Amino acid sequence: MPNSIEFSLLAPYNKEAALIGSFSDWKDIPMKKGKDGYFRTKVELKDGTYQYKFRVRSRSWFLEPDEWVEIVDPYATDIDDPTQNGIIRIKEGEKIIDTYVWKHDDKPLPPDHKLVIYEMHVGDFSGGEDDSFARGKYQHVMEKLDYLCELGVNAIELMPVKEHPGDHSWGYNPRYFFASESSYGTTEQLKNLIDECHGRGIRVLIDGVYNHSEASCPLTQIDHDYWYHHSQQDAEFNWGPEFNYEHYDKNLDIYPARKFIGDTVKFWVREYHLDGIRYDAAKQIGNYDFLRWVVQEAKHEAGVKPFYNVAEYVPENPSITNSDGPMDACWHDSFYHILTDHLCGDTFDLEQLKDILDGKRQGFMGPNNIVNYLGNHDHNRLIVELGNRGIFDDEVFKRVKLGVALLITAVGIPLIWMGEEFGEYKAKTIESAKLDWKLLENESNQSLFQYYKGLIFLRETNHALYSGNIDFFHEDPDNKVLAYTRWNDQGSRIVVVVNFSDQYLAGYQVPHFPANGTWHEWTSNYDIESGDDNILIDLPEYEAKVFVWKE
């Protein structure tokens, strides 16, 4: 039996709009505009799946005045990629996204301070050139969740998964903000992936692109300047039409761009049961009022469960995340740059190292406010940077392990860029670059994986690393040695001694050691005694010793 289904389109200053679809043989169904700026019409539809679009007289300055244009519904939740039509599904007389039934909503998830985040690109995560199976879909990520559990990460951060043009992209060119990327799989398969993550205690964050859209986003065709700045605001960093969060429509009492992005954020959190968002290009967005509002909208939608809002604000600024800032945290880009310079041997500056290992020195409030990384999608992996300087083989793995020790024991939330943990060495590219999983069969690569795994387990089990406490108790600029201790009020204590030089320091004495007694060196698995506030160790070049207090 047919049901009356309403279609609506916000276009308050456009003269006419019509609905077309498979249900009307693609002939116009006129729409009537209300005082709230919405064009509406109702259509009698039986249960089933239909394709549709809107036609509207455009007010965009790059088209003829009142020119008729065909557009996809900006709120379409699914797209037929070949035809670029919106898809609507009707079941039992109601509009639905899909029929997925969530299974693991009751599973406890780790709080923000315990997070170890794994950033991945769905299309490249699960493949490998010599892999004979089709890869690059949500279901293939799901097949590797046991691997991620073994590594010990408890959050994955998906690079943008909103519908973009073509089948391969990093996703920073979203065209349809309510639709998930069809080349990765269906909405049900994305939900199944997230659900299976939750079943394993893994939180799922998505990368949200709210600074701009792809040029063919339907909003650009309806009335460009109603949602976007007329012209680019930042000549250096421009990736498409930029949302104008300052524009206020006093007739309707709305900020159009804020409303649209707020609606998409709430939709994704509600529909996909997300656990956090990374806000791309937050520095370019710049509007703290909007960011504060949208973060609160996301958290309200998430309800009682933890929800982590992280800004890409580069170069970082503590104001984005401190008490008066809108975000929970920001990407700690100086950590990457300064540590890379030191691990490559380009420089040595103890004050810079202390700044990135203890973000409070840079003005950040605490450990949950910064996300540290040795690399991410925007940077070359550390192994590539080292290779560019002629550092290879055992030496490259040695320095990468030093980076890992600092990443996991620094104050802050660690993030791992996919493949780093086993020594993937492809250079940064926006082209397809699937992970080479066969590398794990090599002894050096497997050893690096085990090193990551061991230190992540240390973070999980020794809560000194959750705290904001850090004390740099020994500095030796001549030998390029730095030692620091991490502790909490419950008696957990860790000491890290780092040699940034290319010299093997035999019989090295570390004075002012925090406690006398037995310590366990975590990475090589042996016990050692300290006495008279000193400890005597052999400290190989470019290596960190991680001592865990036993008694």
UniProtKB/TrEMBL annotation:
Identify the EC number(s): 2.4.1.18
Gene Ontology biological-process entries: glycogen biosynthetic process
Membrane-spanning parts: none
Q: Which UniProt keywords apply?
A: Glycosyltransferase, Transferase
What residues sit in the active site?
D280 (nucleophile), E312 (proton donor)
Domain Glycosyl hydrolase family 13 catalytic per the UniProt entry, residue ranges: 131-459
Q: Name one GO molecular function term.
A: hydrolase activity, hydrolyzing O-glycosyl compounds
Domain of life of the organism in this record? Answer: Bacteria
Is Ribosomal protein found in the keyword set? no
Homology family: Belongs to the glycosyl hydrolase 13 family.
Name the chain's protein. Answer: 1,4-alpha-glucan branching enzyme
Source organism per entry reads Planktothrix serta PCC 8927
